[in-house]
Amino acid sequence: MGDAISGTPRFEMRGIRKAFGATTAVDGVDVSVAPGEVCAIVGQNGAGKSTLMAILSGALQPDAGRMTLDGAPYQPAHPLDARRAGVAMIYQELSLAPHLTVAENILLGMEPASFGLIRRAEMRRTAKEVLGRLGHPEISVDAPVGTLSPAAQQLVEIGRALAVGCRVLVLDEPTSSLSQADTQRLFALIAELKRTGHAIVYISHFIEEVKEVADRILVLRDGTMAGGGMTADLAPPDIVKLMVGRPVDALYPRSPRRRGAPILDVSDFGPSGATFTLHRGEIIGIAGLVGAGRTRLFRGLFGLEPVRTGRVRLGAWSGTAAPNERWRMGCGFLSEDRKEEGLAAALSVADNMTLSRLEGLGPGPMVFPRTQDRAAARWMDRLQIKSRSPRQPVAELSGGNQQKVAIARLLHHDVDVLLLDEPTRGIDVASKAQIYELIDALVSKRQATGDSERQATGDSERQQAEREPRAVLMISSYVPELLGLCDRIAVMCRGRLGEPRPVADLTEHGLMLEATGAGDA
Amino acid sequence: MKPKTIIESGGPLLGLAFVAIVFGLLVGPQFFRGNNLELIARQTAIVCTAALGMTMVIVAGGIDLSVGSIVALTTVVIALVLGADYGPIAAATAGIGAGAICGLISGLLVTRLRVVPFIVTLGMMLLVRGTAKGLSGERRLEAPATWLNDMLRTLEPGRGFLVPGGIWLVAILALAVAITLQYTRFGRHLFSIGSNERTARLCGVAVDRTKVAVYTIAAALTGVAGVLQFSRLSVGDPTVADGLELDVIAAVIIGGGSLAGGRGTVPGTILGAATMAVIQIGCAQRGLPNWVQQIVTGAIIVLAVALDRWRQRH
């Protein structure tokens, strides 16, 4: 790393390596943080941040490398060990007991007690003192934590770290559930903690935020240090380039497309009053804020939620239809909620991929596991899904590979219309790039995807239609992705869907304004 | 397929081997004689048949507590039909049909009213038991003797097919259910519903229809168990098989089924049922009192599940 601040670092990691089976999660990572310094670690999902943090917190043991705390060896055997040594973690998902009071949470596991009875007065006093130090004496120490706002809960969590006298504070995506104002308050608190000599490790993938709060930035990519330096020396595009490993604009491929026949025709549909026509060889994007009603539109189109108003026409079929009918009409849906809905975690990769279309994997009502595995293996190969075998439970795969399994289901089914709800949410950048390429290939002139599969299922009737490109309707909260991939984009704002417009007429800034409703004025 | 099945059912197999060896040592080598093994098989047959249906229900994430009551109702219906001078085939069909109707009702209630299966089938347990008692006038119904009574009877030496017909019937049904679970669309749909119902719905699986079907099929299999129960009793008894559902569920759980759904196999279930039968017969032949048998069975259930969880983590 080289740019360690002079003097003994408060906390140091050297040559940390950790592998899971054949995959190396973290390899040769060095981190050092001085007292009173904020060191940010940025990286895409899957870059190895979580593994590094698990090692730091004692949840995982590194295969190689060493760690020191104020010059002394630091080898936590488990998270409690780390906490006792003075390293406290504040996780994305807060680990508080919602039914206990603020005071009880702050002193959880170290309650002052005599003869087994808790000295409540002392406990409340200590909790008050800690919250005072954090500059938030207004939080009642008697309130159940579950009744507090996310920001206040986070303060309680930080308070708990201070109460045990921690020297190193690790914040993992601390702002993900905070409002703008609360984020600023958190930053002020971090500045205060710096003054008291705490070393702070700040994990995030929001670059603007990191620029604001960190003294130094380290970029992690594919488990190794991709680079880093003092915050002042790094411009945001440089950081992105380090994170992604290539210039950003190369992420979105755009092969020649030709708009074909209309295939999904929607007018005044559902509460959003959606009106648009999707053609073959076209991608329409739907931008908007989370909760604007985008997912509801998709669920209505796919028959997962009842819709009473408006008209919809899919190919030759009119009106709403149940999911099994939609699949049969050649329409597939990718759920935004991979864990709870998109995939059956305990089932195998092959079962998940082929569930919507088990027909043709054996004679009559039969399904032959061999045939099923062969069909799945083909998609695993084509989408570069990293999995031991088609029989591996999908829960054991990484987020990116899981998402590719979910998308492979639509390809196995060989649908004409793909409804993709946040197709790249929470996956690593390499998988993102592959999914972008795949989506682009689906709407461009016929490519390899699907050819041999069609021969295998021997579905001659669909073969003619399949020569034509497919159509994609996709939701994304990440505007650059929509601008990079789509032909037209419609904005969903306050439950109403606007008219889709060609991307050439749109800018990221303009779309964001419209999505937040600021564009109306 | 073969070696994999053995590995998957490794836990249950180990459990069975363990209790068999223990009772083999306690009782002596005659424990493993042919006629004793046949006794075990006959003892298992009823629980096993009902457990085949229960395996499917549990794989789909459900449960059926009305099993014991359905067996009782089936024996009553068979006795009534035989008493009205219809033949044994008509009687057996009517008994199995009565079971299937109970399952159909359970399935419809679960899917239409969106009440959890535990509650629905708890209600059905009492409803069906009451119906059986009402139909029989709360007494045992005598019936004319037919070949139905011989299904689980030991064959005279030199006659027939090695084991009683009822055991062959169970074997054929077990094979059919195993194939259904592993090699048909219906079976894969059951696993998907039990594993994640929302995913199944998203993938176009007709969730409600599949659930109604599985409760109906399972209850029909329970009806077959009722036919076997009748063949052992040779009367229609509305109070028989009280608490049988717990033995049946235990067999599935010992065999690696998960009450959370998505897991369960036919070989495992059969091993589970056999384990319990070995304990029962072993205790009886050793002259151990009933309470010992209950303690051992209870311990085996907990151990089997704990072993299975441990195996999954490692």
- How much of the sequence lies in strands of chain B comes to under 5%
Please state the average pLDDT score of chain B. 90
The assembly state of the depicted protein chains is heterodimer
Record field, number of beta strands of chain B: 2
Q: Which structural class fits the helix and strand makeup of chain B?
A: mainly alpha
Report the end-to-end length of chain B measured between terminal Cα atoms.
Answer: 22 Å
Radius of gyration of chain B: 19 Å
The greatest interface here is: A-B, 31 and 24 residues
Number of helices of chain A: 19
Record keyword descriptors for this entry.
heterodimer, A: 521 residues, alpha/beta, Rossmann fold, 7-stranded mixed β-sheet, 6-stranded mixed β-sheet, globular, B: 314 residues, mainly alpha, two-stranded antiparallel sheet, 1% strand
Structure report:
The complex is a heterodimer of chains A (521) and B (314). With 521 residues, chain A is an alpha/beta fold. Chain A contains 19 helices and 23 strands. Chain A has 2 domains: 11-247, 3-Layer(aba) Sandwich (Rossmann fold); 275-520, 3-Layer(aba) Sandwich (Rossmann fold). In chain A, β21 and β22 (496-497) form a beta hairpin. Chain A starts with 10 loop residues before the first strand and ends in a 6-residue tail after the last helix. Chain B has 13 helices and 2 strands; from the N terminus they run ααααααβααααβααα. In chain B, α3 (34-59) packs parallel to α7, α3 (34-59) packs across α8 (185-195) and α11 (244-254) packs parallel to α13. The radius of gyration of chain B is 19 Å and the shape is globular. The chains are: A alpha/beta (521), B mainly alpha (314). At the A-B interface, α10 and α11 of A face α8 and α9 of B.
